[in-house]
Amino acid sequence: MDYIRYNAVKHGYVTRPIDWPYSTFQRCVEDGFYSSDWGGSGVDGIEVEYD
Predict the structure, then answer these.
(1) In tens digits, what is the pLDDT along the chain, a chain of 51 residues?
(2) Which of 8, 21, 22, 48 could form a disulfide with 13 if both were Cys (CB 3.0 to 4.6 A apart)?
């Protein structure tokens, strides 16, 4: 799930997963699976691609 939730950040569409409106990440935050600031400073094992 981490890879999927972080994908929009990885590809440069947003800077934090919470900012991507097409994701169910907000629901995962509401359900307590993630904190709202998760991924804001990167995720171990996932590299960000820059164009």
Answers:
(1) 777 888 888 888 998 899 999 988 889 889 999 888 887 765 655 566 555
(2) 8
Looking from the CA of 22 toward its CB, the CA atoms found within 13 Å total: 7
- The rounded Cα 50 to chain-centroid distance in angstroms is 16
Residue 31 and residue 23: Cα distance in Å, rounded?
14
**The two three-digit tokens of residue 19, written as one number:** 């900012």
Q: What is the DSSP letter of 19?
A: G
pTM for the model stands at 0.68
22 is catalytic: yes
